[in-house]
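Dear support,

I submitted the protein below through the web form. The confirmation email said the job was done, but the results page showed an empty box. After a refresh the structure appeared. I'm attaching both so you can tell me whether what I see now is the final result or a partial one.
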Amino acid sequence: MSMKDAVPGLTAEEGAVRRAPSSGPGRKASAPRGMRSWPHTLFNVVLAIIVAYLVLVPLVILLFSSFKNSGTSLPFQVPGFSIANYSSIFTSSRLASVSFNTFVYVVGALLVSLVCSVGLAYLFERTDIPGRRVLEPLALAPMAVPVTVMAIAWALVANPANGPIAILVRQFFGVNIDIYTMPGMILVMGLFGVPSMYLMIAPALASIGPEFEEAAATLGAPLRRRLRLIVLPLIGPAVSAASLLLVVIILEGFAIPAILGLPKQIFVFSSLIQYYLQNPTGVANYGQASTYGILILIITMALTIVYRRRTRHAERYRVVTGKGYRRSRTSLGRWRAPIAIVVWLYMIFSVLLPIFALIWTSLSPYNRPITWSGLGTMTVNNYTDIFTAPGMSQILSNTAQVVLVTATVTTALSLWIALSASRRSFRGSGLLMESTSLVLGIPSVVLGAAVLFLYLFLPLPIFDTPWIIIVALVTRFLPRGSRLLQAALLQLDDGLMEAAQVTGASPFTVTRTVLLPLLRPAMLKTWLWIFAHALGELPIALLLTSAHNNTLVVQLWNLFTTSADYPHACALAVFILTISTVAVLVVNRRETNGGVA
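What the results page shows now:
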């Protein structure tokens, strides 16, 4: 008997009597089950078809395109099938160079994120470092910054011409640094990945009971030995899971390799796919773009599977045993102040200075170094110019339509998927949730290419409109939204719904009056999360944008890369950053007030 059918303290027969609605006065006889369930069944079937279409069709189109020797033609314009794309790629020298670049980029960025996130998590969760209440929010601040904005900020702060970090390093150490190199890409991506890894590692560190380290310290083990033999093995599952997830994020990321790598033709898989689709010469190669997309899809899907298996058995490493657990912090002793200074310098150079450089340039008449003399010529003309530029009203309208509709539709579909999977509303509802996992490992540039091919072929009037971007973004965020809401559903007690069902309320009434009010905070969190990410999603918008559906993030890309108009680009970046930050602050405020289920 399932949890929904069981009533504690009653036999099966008594429970059936209690569950049956009374037929006394004032209560209408309920309709037969078959008569009353067909609209609900039809509704589920329609939504299941929509979700399957969104998730599966782009994958099929991408695979189809990879077997078309289309060259500059569209895949649907070429008859027959061929493995010419695969042969061309596997016999070319470019595959080896791009694979090597991608490997170095991924491993380097992972190491930077791993060292910084584990170090910060240990200091904030296990030691008495001063100022951690301020330092921890600063460490998480990059989560509020769209990756495109972060890449532009670092291009400003560390470029070899007038970047303040480049100038300081050259003056004090005599070393010339250039952010437009592979080490620059690794540094920026590594720092951008720190908050995500920190959020997965910090809870594992916080949950380790102090008795393990205390026993080792009693035996005379120094701190580095305690870390190597006790702490690191216990957080191993969290570290490996966070690392696998970050590798997928690095592989699919486009903005950082594009903004910092393309100026010197440093390609990784994601930027190479974009290059094939939107070649500066105007000659695209759709077949090879699709084939590279399939290769990176295979890699990311394999990593996603390993990640799911790795996190499945993490309970074997749980060390919190109940009410005997107590928090204890390791004293840093004479190293307390020096370590705090190092952490503050990290925050200044990795978080505060890039954002300050972005704001400085947005208020400057031209791109220039940060100097005291420049304060006298600050201006808001750049902001005035971007909002009064021709076509900006249409860009703002397109962006508002894209982010608002994407957030709303994705949240609604995610709620239905999570509810169906948790209730087993129909046969295959659990499989539907699992099928959305296919999208988790798809890089956004690959997904954008699949949607582009699909709607160039289908006779649907959404190409050259914001709706084609909306379709792609809904597909991209559907698995993340459904899992956010599924996590909230798992925290709800089934007894609340069972009590409403005992009174004879229909499933629709129970959902409307009990379930949705309880899930409202989680739905708001999901909506705002999707809103903020849709606002800064560059590769999908860049691939699907045309003359009539331009958005803010594409306009930012054009201003910075094509026009090299840094002051106006920075003003637009600050505007996007402000919207994203407000959305994140709203979510955090709701969570702080206990509003998220």
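Response: this is the final, complete result; the empty box was a page-load delay. The CA atoms of residues 63 and 294 lie 7 Å apart.
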